[in-house]
Every structure is written in structure tokens, then in C-alpha cells.
Amino acid sequence: MPEDTARLFTFQKTCMMDLFDEDGCYVPSWEGTGARGNHRVAYEYVSEHLRHIGLSQCLAPPVWTFETAPEELDLLATMLFSEHELAQSDFVTLELAVPEKTILRTSYGAWCDLYFDCLETGRIEDDGKWLDCDPANDDQPYTVQAIISCIRKQWIVSVEPLVVAEV
CB of 7 within 8 A of CB of 158? Predict the structure, then answer.
């Protein structure tokens, strides 16, 4: 992997593999994410931030990825997906080699705090702490999320069926 790229993993609906444009780029849609109401308020906040710092040209939903060890992926998937979600759609795990200059690293825990507060209140009250994330100082590999604005075909290293941990 080139020095200026990061190894990231993301879980996506299998159908997204058919949604790349003619330039080999997949940009999520609001309809595809199903984000509505206060969920969408929180996601739009992230989209606006990506645009503000120059990592996106539009307000499309962000792509959530993680820098984690491959052996942690099943545990991460178990943490992120409900049984309902897994029953509704088929998912794949994508391994990506993403240019560093396109990544916003954030704290997953702080994002969850912001997100769940927004679900309750419909507002974003942000002091920026969720953006304060140093992967080198993080003791839990799945707590650092790397947010990107799109997936490019040339970034895909592998595509595997989603595996969740046995509970």
C-alpha cells in the first residue's frame, strides 16, 4: 500500500457495488441511507463539515469507514448492525486503500454522543471534540472512524461478504 494511503474498512449494502458512476465513483444518496428526521440532521452536520474543510463538493451522506485490524471486523460489525438491519439487506465488507488527503478521522464515541443527543433534541450542540482523534493514542481500534465523502473503484482492495461475531 502506498505510503500516502490508509487501509480502511467499510460495511456497505451489497447493491452499492452497482451504483458507481461512469467515472468509477460511488457517492451515497439520502434515499439509499434512509436517514430521515433527526438522523438526517446529524448526518447533514457531518456532510456540511466535510464540505467546509474541502473534502466534499456536495452535501451527500458521508461514508463511514474504520481503521481496524481485519480480525476485529466481525466484532465491529456486530457492534454496528442490529439484527433487523442484517435481516433487511445483504452487506459486504470493503477493504479500501484511501488517499490520506481525503480522510477525516474522528472519535466514534464522541460522534455517538453527538448523534444520540441530536436524535433526542433535533439539534447539534458541538464543541468539536468528536473531531479530536489521534489514532496513535486510541486503545480500542474500532473507536477511530475515518469519514470519507465517496468510494472510488480504484480504492477497493477486496470485497467480502459481511461476517458478524457469534454472540
Answer: no
What letter does residue 113 receive in the DSSP assignment? Answer: H
**For the whole model, what pTM was predicted?**
0.90
Q: What is the gyration radius of the CA atoms in the chain, in angstroms?
A: 15
Q: Which residues touch 74 (CB under 8 Å, ≥6 apart)?
A: 163, 164, 165
Q: Looking at per-residue confidence, does 106 or 154 come out higher?
A: 154
Cβ-Cβ contacts under 8 Å for 84 (sequence gap 6 or more): none
| Cα–Cα dist 93/68, whole Å | 12
CA distance 26 to 14: 13
Query: Which SS3 state, helix, strand or coil, does residue 29 take?
Result: coil
Distance of alpha carbon 125 from the chain centroid: 21
Terminal-residue alpha carbon distance, the chain: 33
